[in-house]
Fold this protein.
Amino acid sequence: MSRRLLQFGSKFGTCNICGTDGPLTNDHTPPKGCVRPTVVQVKALIDAVALDANEKTVVARSSNGVKYRTICSDCNNRKLGGNYDKALIRFTNAVAEIVSSPLALPSTVSIEIEPQKVMRAVFGHIAAVGVNRYQKGPHTEYLRDWFSSGMGPLPGTWKLFCWLYPNRTQILARDWAALDIDSDLPREQRIFPMWFMKFFPLGFMFTMNQTPGLCLRGLAANAKGWVNLTELTDFGSLPPNSVATVNLSIRPAIHVEWPQKAAEGWIIAAHGSSSIQASEWVALLK
Ligand SMILES: [Zn+2]
C-alpha cells in the first residue's frame, strides 16, 4: 500500500510563495492546458532522438498531475493561472508540437518564449511543494517580491535550466542536493541545493549556491557523457513581457532519470521533509 502524500495541510495557513496568512488553494502541476502525451508520441520522440529507453519508462502512467493546497488565491489564480502559466503552457506546447513533427528533427531547435513569465511559473509550482514551506533561506523575501513584481533577476546565486524530457513520468521535487565528489574544491563549495520539475516534453531545474566555474550539464542518455542545458537565467534582466529566442538541444538526449539519478562522480540526494514527498512522488509514478 502506498503511503499518502502530504499534499494538503489546513485550509487556512501561510502561502508558500508570498507568505500571506489566509485561505489556501490547490496548485495543479502541470497546469491545465499543457499537452498530455500519448505513448505513441513519446515512442516516436524517443526513436527520433535515438534514446535507449525501456518499455516501462515509455508507458509510465501519465497521471493527472499533482495538487498541493499550499498557496493563496492571488498567487495561484491571478499570478500563475492569470499570467505566468500561460507562458509556460505556450512554451511546453510549442516544444511538443516541434518534437511531434514527422519531419526529421535538427540537433537544436529555437523557440520564442517569454522567459520572465516561464521562470516564475516554474518557480511557483515547485515552491508549492510541501505544506507550510514559505521559508526558502536568506532569499525568501527577495523571491517573494521577484515572483510578485514580474521584474528583475533571480538572486545571483540561483540559476534555472531546462532541457528536453521525452518521458511521461511527471516529477516535482523540492529540496534535493548535488555533490560533486571528484572536484578539488572544498566540500562546502561542491554541494548545491536544487529543485526540479519534469513533465513531457521539458525538464526544469533551479540550482542555488552553485560555485562559479562548477559547470552544470545534463547526464547524457548513455550515462557516459554530458550535454549542455539551456539556461533561462540568462534572460533574467529582460522586461516582464519580453520575448526571447531560446535554443534547446534535441540530440544528444539527456538521460530521462537525470537529475535524480546519480552520475559517476556525483551524489544526488533528497533532504528535508518535503524531499520525502518528492521521493514518494517519484516512486508512485514509476
Ligand atoms: Zn500567495
